[in-house]
Design brief:
The protein is an alpha+beta fold. It is 22% helix and 18% strand. The protein contains 2 helices and 5 strands.
Length: 109
């Protein structure tokens, strides 16, 4: 399961009702301390915790605009995530996680 060539289609995460229900619940309740944790499908290691440094609404708006959950530097667990020279973002277990696509506000994974 070390897929380094393909990703799920843009918007796929929006078809996952449990994910959206959890995120929307957090967003609607205005909770600022609750985040969603994202784990490596190969190793089970924690890769991302979001949102951090922004609201759930800001996280969801950005993620919907780009088609995939979009993480910022402070949301990355650098113990288990690496960015290769070509911008590809991978877990230390070899799982393809996407690419670093910086914008005017900084790195975005």
């Amino acid at each position: 399961n070390f897929n380094r060539h393909y990703a799920e289609h843009s918007g796929y995460f929006q078809t996952k009702k449990d994910y959206l229900n959890e995120a929307t619940k957090t967003e609607n309740e205005g909770e600022t301390t609750t985040d969603i944790k994202y784990y490596d499908s190969n190793s089970g290691n924690l890769l991302f915790s979001a949102p951090k440094g922004r609201t759930m609404q800001e996280f969801l708006v950005e993620s919907r605009a780009h088609g995939w959950p979009s993480f910022r530097d402070q949301e990355v667990n650098w113990e288990h995530v690496r960015v290769l020279k070509d911008g590809e973002t991978v877990s230390t277990a070899g799982t393809h996680l996407g690419h670093n696509l910086p914008d005017r506000t900084g790195n975005r994974y």
